[in-house]
C-alpha cells in the first residue's frame, strides 16, 4: 500500500495534545485521522515524528499514513484541510518510500520556546507565548544554556512519567536570544525527554531572574535529579519546529512563514 509523508501545523491550545484518546477527547491525531478517512474513503492511521502535550504547538509536524485510494495530491491537502477543525492544517503531502517511518527515521528534532518578560501578562499572547513578570538577564541564560550542549544525562529535566529508555541525549544547539520583544529559546537534539524543554526553560528562567547562577545550573545538570530542579514551565510558548531526516528519504520541509517566528 502506498505510504505518504504529510506535514502538519497546529495550534496546540485547541487540543488535548497530539495522541488520540478514548471518549472523543479532541486531539490532533483524532482530527487528522477523521479528515484523512473522509478523503481516502477508508480508516486511516497516522504516526507522528513527535508527540506533543496539551497546549504545545507545531510548526511542521511530520506524519506518515498509508492509503491505496487514488487521489490527486491537492485532495490530500485542500480536501483534508476542508475537513479539519480550526487551528490545524496540512501544509504539504508527498508519496514516499513504503518503509519510511515518521518517528523512527527522524535523526533529530527541533523545538522553540517563546517567552514574554513583562510586568503585566500580555493578553494578546495568551496561549502563544509563556510569561514571567521577572526581568530576565538573557546573557546569563545564554551562558547557562550553552552548558547543555553535547551528550548529557538529562534526568534533572525529565518528567517522572517519561517512558524513554535512557535519559542520555545529545543536544546539538541550545540558544537564548531576544527577538521582537520576546525571549526565544532554540533547542536541536537527537531526541528529547518528556517535558525536557519546559523543565529546561523553567530552570533558565530561574537563572535569568537571579534565583540560580551559572554554577548552580551546572550543578543541577550534574546531579541528575528532578527533585532539585525548579518547576515545569507552562506549555503555552512551546513549538515543535520539525524533525530532520536522512537524505535517503527525500522528505521535503516547508518554509516556515516569518510571522510564525
Automatic annotation (TrEMBL):
For the protein in the UniProt heading, the enzyme class is isomerase
Q: Which Pfam families match?
A: PseudoU_synth_1
- Residue span, Pseudouridine synthase I TruA alpha/beta domain: 9-105, 144-246
Q: Which residues form the active site?
A: 53 (nucleophile)
Gene3D superfamilies on file: Pseudouridine synthase I, catalytic domain, C-terminal subdomain, Pseudouridine synthase I, catalytic domain, N-terminal subdomain
Recorded GO molecular functions are: tRNA pseudouridine(38-40) synthase activity
Q: Does the keyword Isomerase apply?
A: yes
Keywords recorded for this protein, A-Z: Isomerase, tRNA processing
Q: CDD domains recorded for this chain?
A: PseudoU_synth_EcTruA
Q: What is its EC number?
A: 5.4.99.12
Q: Which residues bind substrate?
A: 111
Identify the SUPFAM superfamilies for this entry.
Pseudouridine synthase (SSF55120)
Tell me what reaction this enzyme catalyses: uridine(38/39/40) in tRNA = pseudouridine(38/39/40) in tRNA
Where is coiled-coil annotated? none
Which HAMAP family does the annotation name? Answer: TruA
Relate the assembly described in the record: Homodimer.
Which family, according to UniProt? Answer: Belongs to the tRNA pseudouridine synthase TruA family.
Question: What is its biological role?
Answer: Formation of pseudouridine at positions 38, 39 and 40 in the anticodon stem and loop of transfer RNAs.
| Name recorded for this polypeptide | tRNA pseudouridine synthase A
Amino acid at each position: 500500500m502506498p505510504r505518504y509523508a504529510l506535514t502538519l501545523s497546529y495550534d496546540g491550545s485547541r487540543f488535548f495534545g497530539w495522541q488520540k484518546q478514548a471518549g472523543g477527547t479532541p486531539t490532533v491525531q483524532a482530527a487528522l485521522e477523521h479528515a484523512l478517512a473522509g478523503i481516502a474513503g477508508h480508516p486511516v492511521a497516522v504516526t507522528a515524528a513527535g508527540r506533543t502535550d496539551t497546549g504545545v504547538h507545531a510548526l511542521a509536524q511530520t506524519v506518515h499514513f498509508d492509503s491505496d485510494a487514488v487521489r490527486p495530491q491537492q485532495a490530500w491537502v485542500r480536501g483534508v484541510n476542508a475537513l479539519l477543525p480550526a487551528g490545524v492544517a496540512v501544509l504539504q503531502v508527498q508519496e514516499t518510500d513504503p518503509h519510511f517511518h515518521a518517528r523512527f527515521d527522524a535523526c533529530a528534532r527541533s523545538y522553540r520556546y517563546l517567552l514574554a518578560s513583562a510586568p503585566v501578562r500580555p493578553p494578546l499572547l495568551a496561549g502563544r507565548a509563556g510569561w514571567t513578570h521577572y526581568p530576565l538577564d538573557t546573557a546569563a541564560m545564554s551562558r547557562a544554556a550553552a552548558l547543555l550542549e553535547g551528550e548529557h544525562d538529562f534526568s534533572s529535566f525529565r518528567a517522572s512519567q517519561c517512558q524513554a529508555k535512557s535519559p542520555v541525549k545529545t543536544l546539538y544547539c541550545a540558544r537564548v536570544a531576544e527577538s521582537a520583544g520576546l525571549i526565544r529559546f532554540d533547542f536541536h537534539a537527537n531526541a528529547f525527554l518528556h517535558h525536557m524543554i519546559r523543565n529546561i526553560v523553567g530552570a533558565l528562567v530561574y537563572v535569568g531572574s537571579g534565583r540560580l547562577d551559572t554554577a548552580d545550573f551546572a550543578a543541577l545538570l550534574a546531579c541528575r535529579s528532578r527533585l532539585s530542579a525548579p518547576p515545569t514551565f507552562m506549555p503555552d510558548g512551546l513549538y515543535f519546529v520539525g524533525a530532520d531526516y536522512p537524505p535517503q528519504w527525500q522528505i521535503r520541509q516547508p518554509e516556515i512563514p516569518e510571522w510564525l517566528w
